Amino acid sequence: MELEIILALGMFATAIAALLAGYSVALTLGGVALIFALIGMALGVFPQSLLGSLPSRIQGGAIMQNETLVAVPLFVLMGVILERSKVAEDLLHIASRLLGRINGGLGFAVILVGALLAASTGIVGATVITMTLIALPSMLKQNYDPRLATGTIAASGTLGQIIPPSIVLILLADAVSNAASQASSQMNVGAFVVSVGDLFAGALLPGLILVGFYLLWIALNAWLRPERCPAATTSSSDPLTRKEILFGLGAPLLLIFAVLGAILSGVATPTEAAAIGVAGALLLAGLRLSEVQDRRLVPLIYAAFASVALILTVTNLVDLRLGVADAGALAYAGVAVSLVATAVFFAGVFASMLVLYRKSQLSPALQSGVHITSMVFLILIGASLFSLVFRGFGGDEIVADLLHSLPGGKWGALVGAMLVMFVLGFFLDFIEIVFVVVPLVTPPLIIMGFDPVWLAILMALNLQTSFLTPPFGFALFYLRGAAPEEIKTSQIWHGAIPFIGLQLMIILLVALVPELATWLPSIAAK
């Protein structure tokens, strides 16, 4: 047994060291696990049959047949399309022109736009870079403190990791659900069910509260130290028109409500809602990128939006079931109208794709979506092999014994697990932590009596800090690459510290008041 413990701990330490050295995540997890599995088989402490079960794990419900994971490429594609349609630029221009004349106005605008982009695109890198290129020069021109300006932009970009729909929440839902199933089998009780919809609902209130914390920080600076975030003294921009506000602000909000509303109300599963989001993103991008030569396609895109309203109206007013005994002419007419409206909708989507193609944006968006999705699934396969081998050495029992031995009972175990994740966030990406650490620490914590949904939200909030913690916070990297040369790296790091503190405060608040994470899921379940 001692040899198995040594191999399990050695495998984990080797994987962490390789990741810190910069090797590919997926190949590191899979390669290290395979090497240690072969060593274990040579020493007679690892069963060969366990390694042979990997293909069935990949092709079975864990990965390839997991309907939950289908939402990943769809939400990724939705975010990439919106990012390339200049939605972020429109939102920033509108918000800054509305709020720029008050102290801290540009900071408020950046945070609100970051929240809206989080609920629509959820892509941290694209959000941070876009806001750095557009908002940071304006903030510096208005004599904002560079530390406050860069910290606000970096922190706002990370909101996409906690405000649904979020890729982090989808991956966490899969990891925590598997951990909950493992815990329930050890407890000999009914299986715990943790769905993506549960985490989307559970993360909504903490995410909005975190936005409020960010706004409060800017407001405190505007009140106590107004020289750090002064109001705009002059404005050469023309007044905003009603059309600019309705289209630039209303369209993304409509898409957000459609996607999240469909999930939280139970009308659609997260995967189906993601498909709705992709179609809506295509239509919005088609309208946004249409210019003079494409104006003839605009009516068709507008007709696609109208067809959605028509379909919803018909389905709510008319029983479209033709197989029932009392199906009459009204039902056949409703079906016919719905079919025509559906055809118009798909024609509008095709027209939007044609606009993106003519603007040379369709192929890059699809390539980016495939690239990100392939990366996630390759890491998932490597992580599946890693967890299989680690458990074969009894690593899950080692982690459980370690957590049980910590002082403070189950709360001491929770604090220990959260501290490990927080410290690893200084050096590792959130995906690596989700696929390596979460499957190891979650089953013992669930067995100790913690609610899986609440636990997953705490982990999601903890993982969000990894984007801001130096030296490897990705939001800081993105901002450093797009910021002017006069902005020092030390200023970026210093500006992120208050927002890291705010993120830790929301973690503590959710830990003390679990209902913040569990109330909405309980309501949605009804």
Give a short overview.
The chain is mostly helical and 526 residues long. It has helices at residues 2-20, 25-43, 48-51, 54-59, 71-84, 87-99, 105-120, 124-141, 146-157, 167-187, 196-224, 242-264, 270-289, 298-317, 329-358, 362-392, 395-405, 409-424, 430-436, 438-447, 452-464, 474-482, 489-512, 515-525.
Architecture overview:
The chain is built from 24 helices and no strands. The longest helix is centred in the last third of the chain and has 31 residues. About 45% of the residues are buried.
| Helical residues, percent | over 70%
Q: Could you give a short account of the major beta sheet?
A: none
- Provide the β-strand percentage band: under 5%
Radius of gyration over all CA atoms, rounded: 25 Å
The chain-level structural class is mainly alpha
First-residue to last-residue Cα separation: 48 Å
Helix count?
A: 24
Give the overall shape, derived from the CA principal axes. globular
Mean pLDDT: 82
Quick one: how many beta strands? 0
H/E series: HHHHHHHHHHHHHHHHHHHHHHHH
The poorly predicted ranges are none
